[in-house]
């Protein structure tokens, strides 16, 4: 559920099946189990969204980190990404961090 802001959600599965969908505050989307996805803030304000998982275990995979740690020749051959461009991908997993509190307030 998108609480505030505008987002593009890309969903991808096996065999090249993928799609991207635009959302705005109040919209609700569904991502099938075992489908990868990412959420991108497409607006110029803070994006706030809620994800709900029907599982006791949450697993997060950074595609950037996965690409950075995969042999460059394999990436180049299978994904048509220039191996030279892989230097821009982080080998460490980014952590999603909210904005810092302002004047002692908390972010809801």
Strand order of the largest sheet: 3-2-4
- Describe the global form: globular
Mean pLDDT: 84
Radius of gyration, rounded? 17 Å
SS elements, strand count: 5
Quaternary status of these chains?
single chain
Report helical residue fraction.
10-25%
Number of helices: 2
Low-confidence stretches: none
Which percent range describes the beta-strand content? Answer: 15-25%
Distance N terminus to C terminus? 15 Å
Instruction: Provide the succession of SSEs.
Output: EEEEEHH
Number of domains: 2
Structural class: alpha+beta
Described by strand count, sense and barrel closure, the largest sheet is: 3 strands, antiparallel
Protein name: Cupin type-1 domain-containing protein
Pfam families: Cupin_1
InterPro entries: Cupin_1, RmlC-like_jellyroll, RmlC_Cupin_sf
